[in-house]
Structure of Chromosome segregation protein:
Amino acid sequence: MWIAKIELFNFKSYQHQLFEFPQPRAGRNIVLIGGMNGYGKTSVLEALYLGLFGKEAVEHLGRAGLKDDVGYRKFVERALHGTAIRTGRDSMWVKIQINQSKAEGFEVTRKWFFSRSGDWTGEDEVVIYEVRDGIRGRALASDRLPELLDQRFIPAHVAPFFFFDGEEVKKLADQSRGDQIRTGIEGLLGVVLLRKLKKRLEEFQTNRSTGISVMDEQKHRELFETLSQHEREYEEAERKHQTLDESVKSLQTQRSDLTNRMMQLGAGAGDVASVSDVVKQQADAETELKVTEDALDDLVASKLPFHLVARDLMEGLSKQVQEEIARDSWDARKRSLEPEKAKFIGTFYATTEPSMSPELTAEQEAALQARLNAAWESLFYPMPAGCAEIVVHDYLGPKRTALLHAMNGLRMGAQDVLGLVAKRESLQKKIRELVNRYTKIEGVDRDGSLAKLNGELTAVNATLDQRQRELGDVERLMSGLKGTIDQERALYAREHEKFVQANPVKSMVGRAERVCNLINELIPQLYALKVEQLADAMTGVYKKLAHKKHVHRIHIDESGKTTILSKEGEEIPFDKSAGENQVFATALLAGLADISGIDAPLVVDTPLGRLDSSHRANILKYWVSDKKRQVILLSQDKEIDRDTYAAMEPNVGMTYLLQHAEIGSGVGRTTAIENEYFMDLTQ
C-alpha cells in the first residue's frame, strides 16, 4: 500500500497544495520533501494524523514526537491559515488517498468549519470514497472510517510506529528506553485499556466499602436465587432462539437456492403468474425511482444554489429581513394609534376649563399644535434596537416571515445528495434485473422441472413458516422474561448495595478485587507474548544501523529494560550519544512496526538529525531494503548532504521543494514545487 495523495486547503501555511506520490516500483520507493525550518514540513505529518484520525490523533501525537499539549480545539484553530477568515473562507480541509494497489484504494476528506471570528464551530465533516483505477467510486458512511483504517491501513494507536518526527522520537530514547518499549508494546496489546479497567475497579471497591449499613443476608440470597433462576431461563430461551434462528437461516438459504434454480430455468415463482409479479415489482420500482429523482431534482434546484452564495451575504439578508419585520411591527403599532391622536387633539381644543386669559393668538396656537405633534412623534422615535433604519425589501410585505422560515430550511449536507444518488442507482439496477427476469420468464419451457422445484419450495416454505412462528413465540417469552429480570435486577441492585457495604468479602467488591488481581497477573504474561518477537526484530534492524558490529543480540526483559549482548553473552555498554539514541529509537519503531504485521508507508520528519555519515548510510540502506514500502522523508537542507543524496537518488521516485513567502500581517504561504529539491544537492 502507499499514500497516493495528500491535499491541504487553508491548513497551516498551505492555502491550497496537492502532493501526489507514485507507487513504489523499480526500486524507487523514496519520496523527498525538502524545506527550510518553519516552511511546513511538520505540517504534512500533522495533516496525516488530523485528516485520518481526527480528535483521536491528539493523544498519539506525543508518541510520534509531535506536540500534543494544546488540545484538539486549539490545535484545529491554530491550524487554520491566517488569511482564510478575512478572505471569506470559513473552512479548512485535508484530503488523503490511500492505495492498496494500482486499481484499488480509498479517499478520506476531513473538513472543519469556523465562525467569522476564526473560532472552530465544533463541526467537522468526513467524506469517504472508494477509488477504482484512479477514479472516485461509491461513497462510504463516515462512521466506517475507524474500521476502514483498521482493515486497510493502520489504526490510530499503531500510527506512531510509522509516522513520526525522527529528531523528537530520539528524545524518548534519551529519557527511558524501558518506558518507550513498554509504551510500544502496550499500544499493540491494549494494556492501557486493562490498566484503566483496573483503576476503575479499585475506585469501585473504595466507593462501595464506605457508608456501611446492615441488611438481612437471607433476603439477599432469596433475591439473588430468584434473579438467577430467571436469568437461567432467559439463557435457555436464548439458546433455543439461536437454534431456531440458525434453522430459519438454513431454510431461507434452501429457499433462496431453490428460487435461484427456478430463475435459471426462466421462472421467478415457478408459474406464469410470476410474470405479473415481476411486472408489478418493476412498476413499483419505477414509481419509487420517479419519486427519488424528483426529490433529487428538488434538492439540487431548491437548495444547492443557495449553498453557492457567500455565507456573509446570506447572513446579511437574514439580518436585514428580521430588522424589517421588527420595523413593520413598530410602524403598524404607530398607524393603529393615529386615530387616537386625532381624538386627543380634538378633545384638547374642545376643552374650555380652565379658561385661558388672554386667548391664544394664531401664532401661539400654531406653536402649540407643533409641540403636540412633536410630543406624539417622540413616542415612536428613535425606533427600538433591532428595527431597520432603511427598508430595502418592501416588496416582500407580509412574506418576510415565510422567507426566513424557508432560509432556515436550506441547510443540507453532502450525505443528503449522496444518499439519494445511491438510492437512484440501486433502483435503476433493480429495474434492469427485473427486465432481464421478465424476458427469461416469457420464454420458459415448461418440461416439469419447474413444477418439481416448486413443490420442494412449497415444502421448505411451510417448514420455514413453522420455525418462524416458533421463533416468534421464543422472542415473546424472552421479552417477558427480560421485563421480569429488569425489575428483579433493579430490586436486587438496591438491596445488594446495602449488602456490598455490609459484606465486602462476599460482595461484588470482592469480585472486583479478584479481577484486579487477575489483571496484575495477566499484564506480565501479555508482555511475554511480544517481548521476544520485539527483541528479535530490533536485533535485526539494530545490526543494520549501528557502528558496533560485535553486537549479537538485544535482550528485553519483562520490565522493558534492554541489554545489548555479545556472542559470548556478555553485556556491552551502551553509548548514549545523540546518534546512538536515534539509531536505537529507529530500531525500536522498526521492530514494533514489523511485529504489528502491517505493511504501511513510513513518513519521517527530520529523518537524519545529527547522525554521522556512517549512520546515515546505514539508515539509508535500511529504508531502501524493502522496495515495496513507501518512505516519505521530510528534511531540511543540512540533513541530507551531497553524498547521501547521490546514494539515495536511484531509489527516489518523487521530490518536492517547499518555498515560503510572507503575504503580510505575519502570515506566510507555502507552496511545493514538484520534481524540485535543494539545488546544491541536485546539481
Observations:
- The longest strand covers residues 120-132.
- The chain is about 55% helix and 15% strand.
